[in-house]
Design brief:
Two copies of one chain form a homodimer. The first copy, chain A, is an alpha/beta fold. Chain A contains 23 helices and 18 strands.
């Protein structure tokens, strides 16, 4: 009996179990069962996969990429440039390690070149027209690289052609104030000015000279600004060290704006309307030419006239005089002129961007864009190929994971290899102009890695404050190059830091105020949150304002592998850091963009602005209360949004709630665009950048302008800017508030 | 045994059943069970609920709303205006039928008024300074409404004050070409011109007169343009009919742009920077004053000089002469001047928008905006209170359903009761300026119902072609006023139709090219898809260009209820039609915005443009191929998107796919904004509107300008516009393509 009861119970239990199993698995919960996409929508960054991915980034492959990229000079639109186009396309179309798609996009853009048949000349000519000195035309060769016939003669891109001659004067950095000071001492009409690199925009050195009747301008890089004073190529400069050789010349675009100069605000397609050449603004009105410091030394040390003040002196072992104008009577050049024969010509040429994409799995209409330019002045091993060699390794690793089916990002990733950046960020600008609305509406962030490595001391990052958190996270995740005990973050915080009221001591994320690389059209034209990442040298050990081979024929694989990053461990670290930021932006459920860090930055800028000019403005009846109110609104709105985020279970609530919050974060910077003035510098928090201050640059510029001119119209401009700034900051706050 | 076996089987079956039930209901399928939000996300328009909702809209309540709204004149910023602010707030805050939230938003805006203490005067003065005739200062009273002391004297808003006198000339409609023609016949220096209403912008009649030395301008509405020639108030005009009485005067804003004139592109807050008055552009440089046709008759029929050509003649029973200049010798006014004493003054005053919202349940960050202005020139029974009385009934019905918990829209609905529209769309403009980014990024569509009813013949709708389908659907759903057998759509297609290559004969949806009401800042400044809805009279039965009481003191409840819509059934039909559009835009799973209808419209515009000016442009070396290519791109992209939509099961696929497509549709019009020029007319497909053509108005204007001036710079402008248009249309096509 007990047995049959036991059997009965066991049977009953078995039947019950069977029933339970059938009930649970066998019958579909019809309307209750979750659609398959529910899980995908709530997937966050996979930290293990990210670690695997970063560990795949190989320094040797980066080194090989760089060697390949720098075999020949690849000045925009030349045959060397086309080789790099093909290289990018081949890599990004590789069936095993390529991207989902890759293609080229072409633009017809206005460029400026020296004439290979009539090289630019700078000479000292005696009153009897004898040539007493000729500035060397090409940089001296120390390796076969410099002997490559494709090395472009040093020139000032967009300088007009022209033959001018006159007595030489020395104008320090060629700033407006320098010419103003100089004009008090020396009659400037019909002179040639020699100026030092830096201190102001390249084109400004000619633009601000012309009103004084100066006929032409020379530019050179003073050894005290770039070489810690070292001048001798016998044992001091490259190839003995990273310092610039005496004949080295920094090339560059001499233009005040960016993008194709003939098609402002429009993509430069073949059929696009072009403004007349005479309507181009912001380029030199008079010939200007850069020269090496060995020739500058010959000229400056022979100058007559009074001694220039201490601040104007430089690295040469002579006194820098103003010029009589002209050379001193005791000089062999006495009574001689300096003559510029400039044969630059403009040409509309076909420049390509190479584009590649990885399609997003969940939100394909959200783009994270990662880019760098491809063109260089000469071989460009550091600028830009350090960035490109890193990008190629990153796309190889990501592409492989995609091809193997191991990973697909939540959002789409777009890679851009921009053309003709050296001529004024042209490829990236045309891209933003062509796809204006699409990019404005869908881009989460832009990451720029141009000069990836110009030293091995520390990460140097610049970007919107909302990205501070994600770059910190990435930097903590990556070991500092060559060190096992320290992270990139640890080195960074030692090298450059600040005290945040919220976080205490943290690395200093710089501001993207300038237009130094391809982030500019994204930041200043589209209002897209951006980040620029590089590794730099120790500024306590050198006063060089940039690596000394910058824009010269010495920026080669040889230079980089010997003096910048032997072993390419720093390139690798930059790749890992940038890769981590990229994947976090692409994969995070909640966008890693922190609006309260933006608030902290606005508050700091406001404090600085108040201390600098609240009282002077009040004296002109301009109140800064509206900006104070706006910044407080922004703070309260960002606190509120963060509270909403903290109190939400975003992985489990409706995916539209997450999308709403992500859109608020993504579109925040769009609200900062100036609605009152068109222009290529419309982000009112970071542009324009006439003066270097840590506070609202547009307003600071206007204030400085009004203080110096005293004009009512200039003060009206300040007042207008106070209104613009307060209204755009309020507008940004509206983006963060509850959406209805 | 059988029994016990049976019992055993039964027990076993019971246990199995219990197991199945436990398994199915008792055990959570954990990760497999659908979150509660899955169902909400896929809800579409509930057609039954929509029918219920529309059937609630009550003509009697609309009538009572109108009576309440028009008790006193409610010129912007006056006490009468404030009464309507309170009325709106009370209704929208009603605990049983109000909205989720309602509030006022205030702006300090620059307005222009006549001086009540020194009324504007127009007189005929003899050479000895005797006053021979004085134009009547206020419109004649036929009902107590006109006797209200708050009726503002007829004036030309933004005309400068000034005393001017001179010989009278007749200048037809005061178009630039009219003055040009007239100047060939009569010396115009120091004259006063009398002009007919219409034909050009109000301000242009003075702006285009000034260069000829004309000192002042009069404007009147010719009986042939508004009254089918009827002139007598003994038995022909109001209160005997809807026709304008002889002393009736159309008031209006005399400004060429819209929005507060002192704070372009910025919200006119108290602290906002204001431009100097002298920098205002687009307003009359010389005094201008509107007068009734009884006075115009006295003046025009006395004019000397040659007879004006047939096209210049009007409804008076005399020949319209040019003027000698001045009156004919046989006139009692011989040798007399006409004198204008204008005392208008400008003042910055506080104007309010009243805002109300219904929060969206699923996509609260998507806005459907429905609005109308609240201010009127006098009582404004038709303009704008017909629209406001309908809006109040619509918000009552929707609000009640929300308060009762029966309905909440998928997207948020924002209602706007705009201030100071009559002074230049000021309230709506300031709103778009204040919330620029937020509205740009989140607004699905704007619906404007201003003059809801000015007749009972037919619906008249204007809007972007993408909304054609939804307004058709709504119009089919609603019975034509007073008819059981015909829908609003049926009457519309009889009244105004066109043959579409796709649909055959359909009602003609007009284009929103102008700036006639508050849709303009949404369309032309923000690029938001918009629709303007009204009911109009039968234009085969009258040549009136608008209802004759427009902007006069006769636009009253009495007038509307007797001559426009007795019984208020037409108001009701407009409310139902607009309500259906509103709910469909707010509730549809897939936004009811059809991109291929946009493509059809672009193709029609292109065909027209090609036939009008492809050859003349080719002769100037300007190819229209880029626009052809762009329109073809747009067509192919829109076909593709529709194919994607057709092949998708949007209710069951990931909600982010639906959101992506809806964003593509929502943001389409943003891509049409001109990136090259700032301005209040930036939508290149619909603006600006100098000439009335069915094709790309900006390009047509530029072409007409180049043809008339022949200048190279004017042809360059045409070429630039070809590039702008082709690139924005390509940009719009990019928005419709696969997102990556």
């Amino acid at each position: 009996m007990i047995k049959s009861v036991l059997i009965g119970i066991l049977c009953g239990a078995a039947v019950l179990t069977a029933g339970i199993l059938i009930g649970h698995y066998g019958i579909d919960k019809s309307s209750d069962s979750a659609p398959t996409w529910v899980k995908d929508l709530s997937k966050d960054v996979d930290e293990n996969l990210l670690e695997d991915l970063l560990s795949e980034l190989d320094n040797k492959r980066i080194e090989e990429n760089l060697r390949e990229l720098t075999k020949v000079p690849h000045l925009a639109t030349t045959a060397g440039d086309e080789q790099t186009v093909q290289l990018m396309l081949n890599r990004w179309r590789d069936p095993e390690t390529g991207l989902d798609q890759a293609w080229r996009e072409e633009y017809m853009v206005y460029l400026s070149f020296p004439d290979p048949d009539k090289p630019n000349k700078v000479t000292v000519v005696s009153p009897s027209n004898g040539v007493l000195h000729t500035v060397i035309e090409k940089e001296k060769a120390y390796t076969p690289d410099q002997e490559n016939p494709a090395v472009v003669q040093p020139y000032a891109c967009y300088s007009p052609a022209g033959q001018v001659q006159g007595k030489l004067v020395y104008a320090n950095y060629g700033r407006a104030s320098d010419y103003q000071d100089l004009s008090q001492r020396v009659p400037l009409k019909n002179t040639i000015a020699i100026t030092k690199s830096g201190g102001t925009g390249r084109a400004d050195k000619a633009i601000d000279a012309a009103p004084y009747g100066i006929l032409g301008v020379l530019v050179y890089t003073d050894p005290s600004d770039i070489n810690d004073g070292f001048m001798s190529d016998a044992n001091e400069t490259y190839p003995h060290s990273w310092y610039m050789p005496p004949s080295g010349v920094e090339r560059g675009a001499y233009a005040s704006t960016y993008g194709d100069l003939l098609t402002p605000y429009l993509a430069a397609k073949e059929e696009t309307y072009r403004i007349p050449l005479k309507d181009i603004t912001g380029i030199p009105p008079i010939p200007i030419q850069p020269i090496g410091f060995e020739d500058a030394y010959m000229l400056i040390c022979e100058l007559g006239g009074e001694a220039a003040p201490a601040k104007w002196q430089g690295g040469f072992n002579c006194t820098y005089n103003y010029g009589g104008p002209g050379f001193r009577p005791s000089s062999a050049f006495n009574n001689s002129d300096v003559k510029l024969d400039i044969f630059n010509y403009g040409e509309v040429k076909n420049s390509s961007n190479v584009m590649g994409v990885i399609r997003g799995a969940v939100e394909p209409d959200r783009y994270v864009i990662y880019g760098n330019h491809r063109d260089s002045w000469v071989h460009g091993a550091i600028d830009p190929s350090s960035g490109t060699s890193v990008m190629l390794e990153l796309t190889r690793v990501l592409g492989k994971m995609v091809k193997q089916g191991k990973w697909r990002p939540r959002r789409s990733i777009i890679f851009g290899s921009w053309g003709a950046e050296e001529f004024g960020l042209i490829g990236s600008s045309e891209y933003t102009e062509q796809y204006f609305t699409k990019l404005s509406e869908r881009t989460v962030a832009y990451i720029n890695v141009d000069i990836a490595v110009q030293g091995n001391a520390s990460l140097q990052a610049a970007g919107m404050p909302s990205l501070q958190n994600v770059i910190f996270k990435a930097a903590k995740q990556v070991k500092a190059p060559g060190l096992d005990s320290m992270s990139v973050y640890d080195k960074w915080i030692r090298y450059s830091n600040r005290t945040s009221p919220v976080y205490g001591l943290i690395p200093s994320l710089r501001y993207l105020t300038g237009a130094g690389s391809d982030y500019a059209p994204f930041v200043h034209y589209l209002g897209i949150t951006s980040l620029d990442i590089s590794y730099t040298f120790d500024r306590t050990k050198t006063s060089a304002r940039i690596y000394p081979a910058y824009h010269t024929a010495y920026d080669t694989f040889d230079y980089s592998s010997k003096f910048i990053d032997p072993g390419f461990y720093t390139h690798q670290a930059v790749g890992k850091t940038a890769g981590s930021v990229l994947v976090r932006l692409a994969d995070s459920l909640l966008l890693p963009m922190n609006c309260s860090d933006y608030a902290e930055s606005l508050e700091a800028s406001l404090d600085e602005a108040l201390s600098q000019f609240e009282n002077p403005l009040l004296a002109m009846n301009i109140s800064m209360e509206p900006i104070k109110h706006a910044v407080a609104s922004f703070r309260s709105a960002s606190n509120h949004l963060e509270q909403v985020i903290r109190s939400s279970d975003l992985a489990n609530e409706t995916p539209l709630k997450l999308r709403t919050i992500n859109d608020q974060l993504m579109l925040l910077d769009r609200a900062f665009l100036n609605p009152v003035t068109l222009g290529k510098f419309r982000h009112v928090i970071w542009a324009p950048i006439q003066i270097t201050t840590r506070t609202f640059p547009g307003l600071s510029d206007a204030y400085a302008g009004a203080m110096s001119s005293g004009k009512a119209s200039a003060w009206a401009q300040v007042h207008l800017l106070v209104s613009v700034m307060s209204q755009v900051i309020e507008g940004a706050a509206h983006m963060l508030r509850d959406v209805i």
